[in-house]
Amino acid sequence: MSTREQALALDAQDPLAPLREQFSLPEGVLYLDGNSLGVLPRATPARVQQVVQDEWGTGLIRSWNSAGWITLPQRVGNKIARLVGAGADELVVADSTSVNLFKVLSAALSITVADAPQRKTIVSERSNFPTDLYIAEALCRERGFELVLSEPDELPTLLNGRTAVLMLTHVNYRTGRMHDMAALTAAAHAAGALTVWDLAHSAGAVPVDLHAANADFAIGCGYKYLNGGPGAPAFVWAHPRHASRFWQPLAGWMGHAAPFEFTPGYRPAEGISRYLCGTPALLSLAALECGVDTVLAAEPHGGMAALRAKSLALTRLFAAKVQADCPALRLVSPTSDVQRGSQVCFAHDEMAYAVVQALIGRGVIGDFRAPDVLRFGFTPLYLRHVDAWDAAEHLRQVLHTGEWREPRFQQRHAVT
């Protein structure tokens, strides 16, 4: 287990250390919740103010052309594409993660059933993020499919001649366990099924290569590791072999081949642009672009490979110290680097929520996931090795002193 002095020495040698200056970090806060909401980039307030005061205030509606508002979903999409192994003009920013999942899952089902009507199941992980399962459940009810759920290691055994789609989140939100995207995609294809990948806890956090994995569809979140701000729009990707095969179900005007023809009949755009729907949220898109730029700033320093190496170092350090100092907690994240995303999660049947609240009271911000998980996200762009060490030390003190037992830490809030 590292000492605090060793953690400081690692920080002194960290080639990514200058990237921390991109962010507005509150004094006295150790922020281990970037997997829920990323930190504010310093560039964002000025950029949003520019959009409000200059582009909207002065340019008014002219800014759709003069400021390039109309192509912003594609421009920001092309930046995100560089982080997830997608090609140019294959990924767009639009709507929310849930809405985009509905689009691509619906399209994937249509493609599969057109080729093989007997395929009637969607396979997913039992502990997948609830919104993914809810969207899948709703589509199953609407279309007469069945949602089949299993533990991660059992997934390949459920892929068969009835499987239409394998739908998975690349990094599990509760445990941080990361699937082998290429292997599971290959297994799905061997069974004749398509894949839909949720990159909410992957994009900007771990290396992703959608083309190398031969994935079919992917969606992802803008407000976690991409630092786009609360409610930032999400993104959607379809492999070029699928992008123009079927209409996505939300045939809005921005997905039309020529939106400003104003014709009554729908004619979908070619490629990924048909996955747009309504008018884009320009203020949020401008903020998201600033967040994506903070991740792209790592490219001269080694890019996603360097971020991944630091992420693994941070999570190893934190997990080792907590395991040594806090035996009452049970590690639920993988110990294997290959299987672990950019978070570390511990569990306790009784005190998990109160411990997280006590840590927040100390300025160490993680979060709680029902029923029993203490979750800590590690964003290597702005977290230091000493932050990981200090956070683990605070956790030790909260448990050692029984601080978590205070009544104020037992009160449940609406957002956990």
From TrEMBL:
Keywords (A to Z) from UniProt: Hydrolase, Pyridine nucleotide biosynthesis, Pyridoxal phosphate
InterPro entries: Kynureninase (IPR010111), PyrdxlP-dep_Trfase (IPR015424), PyrdxlP-dep_Trfase_major (IPR015421), PyrdxlP-dep_Trfase_small (IPR015422)
A GO MF term: kynureninase activity
Biological process (GO), any one: L-kynurenine catabolic process
Residues bearing PTM N6-(pyridoxal phosphate)lysine: 224
Pathway annotation: Cofactor biosynthesis; NAD(+) biosynthesis; quinolinate from L-kynurenine: step 2/3; Amino-acid degradation; L-kynurenine degradation; L-alanine and anthranilate from L-kynurenine: step 1/1
EC number(s) reported in the record: 3.7.1.3
Catalytic activity: 3-hydroxy-L-kynurenine + H2O = 3-hydroxyanthranilate + L-alanine + H(+); L-kynurenine + H2O = anthranilate + L-alanine + H(+)
Chain sites annotated for binding pyridoxal 5'-phosphate: 97-98, 129-132, 169, 198, 201, 223, 253, 279
Listed Gene3D superfamilies: Aspartate Aminotransferase, domain 1 (3.90.1150.10), Type I PLP-dependent aspartate aminotransferase-like (Major domain) (3.40.640.10)
Keyword Magnesium in annotation: no
Named cofactor requirement(s): pyridoxal 5'-phosphate
NCBIfam families in UniProt: kynureninase
Self-association state and partner proteins as the record states: Homodimer.
Function of the molecule: Catalyzes the cleavage of L-kynurenine (L-Kyn) and L-3-hydroxykynurenine (L-3OHKyn) into anthranilic acid (AA) and 3-hydroxyanthranilic acid (3-OHAA), respectively.
Family classification: Belongs to the kynureninase family.
Name recorded for this polypeptide: Kynureninase
Organism of provenance: Rubrivivax rivuli
